[in-house]
């Protein structure tokens, strides 16, 4: 519970330290994992510092010599152990430490089992899927390199990359690549390079080593950071047989630092040779196309239509003249036949016309209503009639009807 204090009513140091001791005492016994440093024994008590394997944090541990001797000879400086301890707070000195009750070394088998469990968890989250991996640029303008200071890995990457493409640029971040500081420093360097817009690919390189030496590159925090980067990451950790978890989440795995340089940077000689091959292939393709088109053009020009184009025009002109002559003859024959038919019709018309009959001396007798008189009996005495002649008409009056 929080203390009720103020500037006017402070509490003494002993009260604060006693409260802190009480809070820590309620933690009970706990299991803690870390790496042993500063191991020494004085009398019947063993003192050591237990460092966090990832963060730059540590705690003092003390315990009976028998507890550490029971753990076996594996408990030495640099060893990774699990300690069953009781938190202690020394009120008089205001210091915190752990009192060891049991110590167990973390063996290789247990480390491998932990790594396998982490690998299964990450695989279930899909961090190993090929579709989430980012492609590397063909020729990166600037490469970020994370490696140990003046290490063989740095030399191999820089030397082989510049030998393949002399103009390539690097931004090198030197970090610890093993030990308790490795994860934190590599994480910080990775964040800085990923935030640099000029960096187009990041290479994390380290030479070979034991499984314990490469544990930092299987750390969950570092592995997830690699998977979350914007920039493609190439993992070049150890040798071909080494396989930290970072290799599985990186966008590209290189078997060695030298192999990373070969995969990230193209060989200028190979590219020039490829350009020459493509240029020669292009020339052959163009030359073949021109030759085919030339052959086709010659074949087209040898055809009669193009070999003597005027002859085709003359042939078409002859066909036009012949068609015109046929049209004229057909029209002339049609006009002649129509003229003959018209003459015959006119002759028949004249022959059958009443005017022709009148010209022969006949006349047509009509009443005043122009009705034709066909019989003398149809006319009454004194009736006025019209007599139509071939040339003119006569108005007459019937004075007498005579017998035929």
Automatic annotation (TrEMBL):
Predominant cellular place of this UniProt entry's protein: cytoplasm
Coiled-coil features, chain-numbered ranges: 310-337
GO BP term (any one): DNA catabolic process
Assigned keywords, A-Z: Coiled coil, Cytoplasm, Exonuclease, Hydrolase, Nuclease
EC number from the UniProt entry: 3.1.11.6
GO annotation, cellular component aspect: cytoplasm; exodeoxyribonuclease VII complex
Enzyme class: hydrolase
Compartment list: Cytoplasm
Coiled coil among keywords: yes
Domain spans labelled Exonuclease VII large subunit C-terminal: 127-349
Segments forming domain OB-fold nucleic acid binding: 13-103
A molecular function GO annotation: exodeoxyribonuclease VII activity
Catalytic reaction equation(s): Exonucleolytic cleavage in either 5'- to 3'- or 3'- to 5'-direction to yield nucleoside 5'-phosphates
UniProt-listed CDD domains: ExoVII_LU_OBF
UniProt similarity note: Belongs to the XseA family.
Quaternary structure note: Heterooligomer composed of large and small subunits.
Described function: Bidirectionally degrades single-stranded DNA into large acid-insoluble oligonucleotides, which are then degraded further into small acid-soluble oligonucleotides.
Protein's name according to its UniProt entry: Exodeoxyribonuclease 7 large subunit
Organism expressing this protein natively: Actinomadura macrotermitis
């Amino acid at each position: 519970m929080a203390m009720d204090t103020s500037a006017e009513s402070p509490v003494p140091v002993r009260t604060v330290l006693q409260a802190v001791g009480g809070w820590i005492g309620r933690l009970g016994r706990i299991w803690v994992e870390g790496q042993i440093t500063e191991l020494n024994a004085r009398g019947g008590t063993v003192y050591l510092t237990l460092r966090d394997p990832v963060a730059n944090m540590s705690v003092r541990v003390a315990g009976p010599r028998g507890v550490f001797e029971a753990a076996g000879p594996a408990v030495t400086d640099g060893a990774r152990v699990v300690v069953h301890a009781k938190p202690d707070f020394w009120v008089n000195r205001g210091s915190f430490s752990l009192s060891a009750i049991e110590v167990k070394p973390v063996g290789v088998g247990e480390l491998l089992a932990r790594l396998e469990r982490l690998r299964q968890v990450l695989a279930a989250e899909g961090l190993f899927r090929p579709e989430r991996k980012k492609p590397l640029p063909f020729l990166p303008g600037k490469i970020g390199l994370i490696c140990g200071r003046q290490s063989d890995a740095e030399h191999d990457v820089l030397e082989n990359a510049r030998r393949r493409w002399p103009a390539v640029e690097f931004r090198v971040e030197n970090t610890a690549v093993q030990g308790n500081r490795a994860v934190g420093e590599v994480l910080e360097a990775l964040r800085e390079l990923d935030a640099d817009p000029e960096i187009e690919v990041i290479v994390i390189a380290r030479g070979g080593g034991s499984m314990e030496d490469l544990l930092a590159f299987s750390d969950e925090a570092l592995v997830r950071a690699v998977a979350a980067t914007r920039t493609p990451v190439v993992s070049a950790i150890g040798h071909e047989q080494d396989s930290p978890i970072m290799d599985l989440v990186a966008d590209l795995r290189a078997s060695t630092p030298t192999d990373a340089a070969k995969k990230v940077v193209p060989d200028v000689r190979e590219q020039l040779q490829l350009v020459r091959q493509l240029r020669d292939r292009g020339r052959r393709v163009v030359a073949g196309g021109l030759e085919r088109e030339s052959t086709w053009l010659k074949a087209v020009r040898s055809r009669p239509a193009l070999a003597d184009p005027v002859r085709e025009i003359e042939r078409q002109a002859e066909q036009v003249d012949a068609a015109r002559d046929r049209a004229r003859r057909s029209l002339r024959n049609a006009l002649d036949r129509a003229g003959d038919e018209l003459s015959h019709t006119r002759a028949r018309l004249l022959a059958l016309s009443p005017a022709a009959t009148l010209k022969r001396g006949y006349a047509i007798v009509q009443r005043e209503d122009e009705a034709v008189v066909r019989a003398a009996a149809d006319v009454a005495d004194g009736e006025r009639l019209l007599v139509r002649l071939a040339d003119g008409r006569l108005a007459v009056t019937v004075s007498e009807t005579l017998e035929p």
